[in-house]
Design goal:
The protein has three helices and four strands. By secondary structure, it is an alpha+beta fold. A hairpin with a 2-residue loop joins β2 (about 60-65) and β3. The chain has a domain at about 25-105: Alpha-Beta Plaits (2-Layer Sandwich), CATH 3.30.70.1070. It is about 30% helix and about 25% strand. The protein has helices spanning about 1-20, 45-55, 85-95; strands at about 30-40, 60-65, 70-80, 100-105. It is elongated, with a radius of gyration of 24 Å.
Length: about 130
């Protein structure tokens, strides 16, 4: 009986510790900037720019959008390691200045310091 109890205890510990394994971190979870480098109404033009970006070492994707009834294909590039010439290279390839769409901060970054004055109570329920 004691042997079964120990076996169950070891199994329970193994299952509990199984969740402690290191998590997989995907590229889109890493800190990066997303730039829009083109916007087209024709798929061929969006595909051509995407191919040019790949030839020059940039991973890109095409996002579809509808604004004011107008269908557009936006070519986006996620930049994970910005080099001094990254934006100028993107501009040269695309023929237009890249538009910063979003910044994805590090998940491990420490929170910004509080701007509340000492002794004040933060607003709640807002």
């Amino acid at each position: 009986m004691r042997g079964i109890f120990i076996s169950v205890l070891v199994l329970a510990a193994a299952l509990a510790l199984g969740g402690c394994a290191e998590e997989t971190v995907y590229d889109w979870q890493k800190p990066h900037d997303t730039y829009q480098v083109g916007s087209f109404s024709q798929a061929q033009k969006a595909d051509a720019l995407k191919a040019k970006l790949v030839q020059n070492g940039f991973d890109s994707r095409i996002e579809t959008d509808i604004k004011n009834g107008q269908f557009t294909l936006n070519v986006l590039v996620d930049v994970y390691d910005t080099q001094p010439d990254t934006l100028s290279r993107l501009e040269r390839i695309a023929g237009a200045k890249p538009l910063l769409r979003s910044k994805t901060p590090s998940k491990t970054a420490s929170p910004a310091p509080s701007t509340a004055k000492p002794g004040t109570v933060p607003a709640s329920g807002i």
